[in-house]
Task: structure prediction
Amino acid sequence: MIYQKVALIGLGLIAGSMAHAMREGGLAGRITGYARSQDTRDVAREIGLCEVCDSMAEAVADADLIVLAVPVGAMGPVMAEIAPHLAPGATVTDVGSVKQSVIDAVAPHIPEGVHFIPGHPLAGTEHSGPRSGFASLFRNRWWLLTPLPETDPAALDRLGRLVRGMGAKTDMMEAGHHDLVLAVTSHAPHLIAYTMVGVADHLRRVSGEEVIQYSAAGFRDFTRIAASDPTMWRDVFLHNKEATLDILGRFTEELFVLQRAIRMGDGQHLHDYFTRTRAIRRGIIEAGQDTEAPDFGRIAGASAAS
Ligand code: NAP
Result:
């Protein structure tokens, strides 16, 4: 057992998966949880996700680890509310997809004697809510920790052991660098998927059902990504604004170059470009972050970085 009592604030995909994984690994003595709506708390109780509390104060009382697993925009207000109820020596971590803005919002509310270690599991699916979690979500996925200069090494080591106990691999990164890397690997791709599905939806209004009926693998994968939780992703873009806009600017430039190659019939350019991008895919497979299987290897329950 690594922590006596872990409190999960927010009971969705990530917190739910943590509850399953911690239980499976015997990593926590007790697991308590809180979600803001009665509906979510009722479902979590019904499926026995954890000891569900009706207030955040009750959930975090005497907890030695508190996990903020709410949308990025809710992290600051949630932290302000739980701060007076935290036990001395406790560790607060978060699982938000953006790091610098979460640090800016959360760190000022951390009481003296409480550790704060921001984190981000690069694992997710397009599903949300308390029923969507599963124990193997983090297996063989990266879990990035973005400690602050004053972070206590013993507290960091302990959280790292919990994360690895859930099957993930840990790495450390500076928060601003994290946000730029994730803008490239996750945030901009999500926005592009949302846009592509939006374009198809517009076309569907013109051409009836055809887009859905004849959807091919590429488009289907876009629709999977574009089905991701609207609140979570609204907050990601609002809180990783600069990095996402930077990457989208570069994306637009590249798109213009490819558009021009198509217009000019420059097959050599297209072929060279696609040869380079194919190598990236091979690198991801070699790094063990996806498989060669059809449909991008996403069998039911498989995870993708978010
Ligand atoms: P989720 O399934 O939508 O669950 C979010 C939970 O937060 C729900 O229990 C919700 O309660 C609660 N919540 C929402 N707004 C709140 C507020 N203002 N105050 C208190 N509780 C609130 O979300 P998730 O996918 O687990 O994501 C949680 C965090 O993990 C986000 O910060 C996200 O960026 C990050 N993350 C997500 C993924 C992914 O792929 N999904 C991957 C890595 C990291 P109600 O149900 O009662 O509204």
In short: The chain has two domains: 3-173, 177-297. Residues 10-15, 35-37, 40, 69-72, 74, 78, 95-97, 120-121, 124, 128-129, 229, 232, 236, 306 surround NAP (CB under 6 Å).
